[in-house]
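Morning. Coffee machine broken again, so started the prediction first thing and wrote up yesterday's gels while waiting. Chain of 99 residues, entered below exactly as on the submission form.
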Amino acid sequence: MDTQDRERCPLCGRSLGEINIDHHHLVPKTFKGREQFAIHRICHRKIHATFTERELFKTYHTWEALRSHEDIKSFIEWVAKKDPGYYSGTVTSKSRRRK
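Came back before lunch.
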């Protein structure tokens, strides 16, 4: 990965900027994931509002898999228009609340 790639969010592809940055484990810590990636806080919150830890472990443990999910695709289209430092709390999706 070159320097320019490290300066971009691996989920949405926008510049990371300087504020509202989190770190995401593609394999959740619950399942012994160790590798962390810098990611926008809003992108990180969207991932965890959409998927359970088990779903992340079993199915959505790559950036490609995450970006292929319809809810995440829609989110990326929406957030692409936002400034890299933009953050707003993410509401848990209705489908996840029912589980």
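The two ends are 37 Å apart (CA to CA). Going to sketch it on the whiteboard this afternoon.
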